[in-house]
Design goal:
alpha/beta; 9 helices; globular
């Protein structure tokens, strides 16, 4: 099999950019769960939640599932056959790929796809390094997954380096509108004391890297993430683009809650920011569920961790009175897609939910969906 073109060129200069999540996908990537320690005491229901994720996504696009071994693949197939999304003989809509990973959080270690339109529409992979959020020891298989996927798809792979070192960045730490603006947080990427990803890089360095490798021109820095987030501030738990000009931002009503001050500060920052074209950002407030705990530990439950697929927007729900409100807000913002809730009380015990588990592969074909989803 032909290996990808591994090149030191700067992809933005070649016309590449990171598409917005609502742009048409070729596929969604998942890494099938296997480690009991990721969901201690709650391992049994997790594959069935993955099955439900597949069931909602597969009507609109392919699903590519990373598995570790033949036995691991059999286990995933057993679940998918049981819930009726895969016939026993298989389906071209669901593809199993034997690329071993350490854990299941495909958003963060999986490939960040970039695309250019000319001279022909072409996909490539921006090759950031993954180090388990500078927190856990198990990452060596995960950090090789993106390059292996690029090789399997025969895509160019652009390793991201500065000063002779690989640059660490997780997919959940950024969100883009596909037009030039990118959201991230200072807590995740700039903190020099806790979970430090790139100790030798400052704000200016990181902005230059994101411009060179993701094709953005406007980096919007929020402050802190939510309580319970073991990634130390991923933006996909607090604020997401829902159209080129609009975001949803999590909002906490209780001033005594640990998230109140940080989310209010982020709202104030957004009010002062402008998009790549100089326009103001339209901000829609998304409620937070009531605090969720397990064994005394606050969990990072957030409706902002939704995933935009071709057919549906999948939203984590938490048996909370705010579930219906959050689903209603997102249904108004994505009128061209079905907005569905996925029960995530068990899932969030792994300290992440739907967006953390998924990674989109953009299509090389012309858009078949409305590229300007949402907005009010």
């Amino acid at each position: 099999m032909k290996k990808p073109d591994v090149t030191e060129q700067v992809p933005a200069r070649l016309g590449f950019r990171m598409p917005a999540e609502w742009e048409t996908h070729e596929a969604t990537w998942l890494a099938w769960p296997r480690r009991r320690s990721d969901w201690p005491g709650k391992t049994a229901p997790i594959p069935w939640v993955f099955g439900e994720i597949v069931r909602k996504i597969v009507p609109g696009e392919k699903i590519r599932i990373l598995v570790r071994s033949a036995d691991h693949e059999k286990g995933s197939r057993r679940v998918l056959v049981s819930i009726g999304v895969m016939p026993r003989e298989g389906t071209p809509r669901i593809e199993m790929m034997k690329i071993p990973t350490d854990r299941a959080w495909a958003r963060d270690f999986g490939p960040i796809f970039i695309r250019r339109e000319e001279p022909k529409r072409e996909l490539a992979v921006a090759g950031f390094r993954f180090n388990a959020w500078a927190r856990y020891p198990d990452w060596r298989l995960d950090t090789r997954a993106a390059k292996r996927i690029a090789r399997a798809l025969k895509r160019a792979y652009y390793p991201v380096r500065r000063g002779g070192k690989d640059v660490v960045l997780e997919g959940g730490s950024i969100d883009v509108n596909g037009r030039g603006s990118l959201l991230t947080t200072e807590e995740c990427l700039l903190d020099k004391d806790v979970q430090v990803r790139n100790p030798c890089l400052d704000r200016r360095d990181l902005e230059a890297i994101m411009k060179d490798y993701l094709g953005v021109s406007n980096v919007l820095w929020l402050g802190r993430g939510i309580a319970g987030d073991d990634t130390h501030g991923h933006v996909d738990d607090i604020c997401r683009f829902v159209s080129p000009g609009a975001v949803v931002l999590c909002s906490e009503r209780d001033p005594s809650d640990a998230n109140y001050r940080a989310l209010e500060e982020n709202r104030e920052r957004l009010e002062g920011y402008r998009l790549e074209d100089g326009s103001r950002i339209q901000t829609v407030l998304l409620p937070m569920p009531a605090p969720l705990f397990m064994n005394g530990q606050r969990l990072p439950a957030s409706y902002a961790n939704f995933y935009i697929s071709n057919a549906a927007v999948l939203v984590p729900t938490f048996n909370d009175p705010s579930d219906r409100r959050a689903l209603g807000i997102l249904a108004e913002l994505f009128p061209d897609r079905t907005v569905v809730g996925i029960h995530a009380v068990d899932l969030v015990w792994g300290l992440g939910t739907l967006h953390c588990l998924t990674q989109q592969e953009p299509s090389e074909q012309p858009e078949t969906l409305n590229p300007v989803s949402g907005g009010r």
